[in-house]
Structure formats: structure tokens, C-alpha cells
Here is the input.
Amino acid sequence: MTTTETEVKEETPPEEEEFDYSKVEDIIESLPQKSRRHLIPVLQRIQGAYRYLPEEALDVLMEELKISRAEIYGVISFYPGLMITEPGKYILKVCVGTACFVKGCEIICNKVDEQYHIKVGETDEKKLFTLQTASCMGNCGAAPILVVGDDFYGNLDPEDTLSTLGSYEDKE
Here is the structure.
């Protein structure tokens, strides 16, 4: 490049990924009949395919099952396991049952909030962690309990929460 030439760099906006409709279409096509009575299992299968319930998938569902957005969101809002926002790579589930509460589950949630700036139901900026609670995990002898993805941590010292989660950050 000579001194008379100038380099022009144009910033291009990041391309949005095109939504893959094939998964939701396959799920709907597998139904014995296109009926509202299949709504809950269809929502669960869609979430299984996409990890959450994308707006585009819900639009297809409304059209194919001939139901309103209000009906769909009525079901989604009733079941806490159904998510309309993309979760982090790891879902953190903190047991908040009586034994876990007594042994510091609230401290675990506070530590997560202090470090990752997320409250229950939120996902951190890096999309690494989503914080959720569970009423009881049925293992009160191991209180307090934290589940990270598929990994179970019982008898967790609440003060060790951040070092436990740090090992997942190191994997990234």
C-alpha cells in the first residue's frame, strides 16, 4: 500500500443465524393429530430440541395447532421448567427445601449473584450459567445441594460455591 492509498474498513454487522425450522416441523409432523391436547408434550420436545422455546418455534406452533399466543404462554407461565429465553450452557439448580434452606442455600444464591450478577431465573452475560431453584431434590441428608448441569454437589459448603463454579469457567 502506498502513502496515497487509504485503507477503508467497513464494519459489517454480525450475521444472525437463520432459524432452523426443521426441528419444530418434525416434532409437529410426528403428532398423531394436530391438536391443542398435545401442547405440553410438544413444548417439552421443542425445548429439548432447542434448549428453550424460541419465538419462531412458537409462531409455527400457533399456526399448526390453531391456538393463540395467550394459550401457549398460559401453559408456559404455569410450568417453571419451560423457558422462553435461551439458558446458559450450565443450568444451576439450587435446592431451597427446608434442610437446604437451614444449611445455607440462600448464601449459595447470593454468591452466584455477587460473582455472576444473576438472580434466580436469569442467565449471566457470557451465557455460561442460568440460576434456578428447586423446591426439594429429595436428598435432605446431603443439604445444601447444588446441581450444575448433570453434576450433583451435596453437602456443599456455601463458601465453596464460587470455586466449584470456577471449575466450569475453566472448561471454557
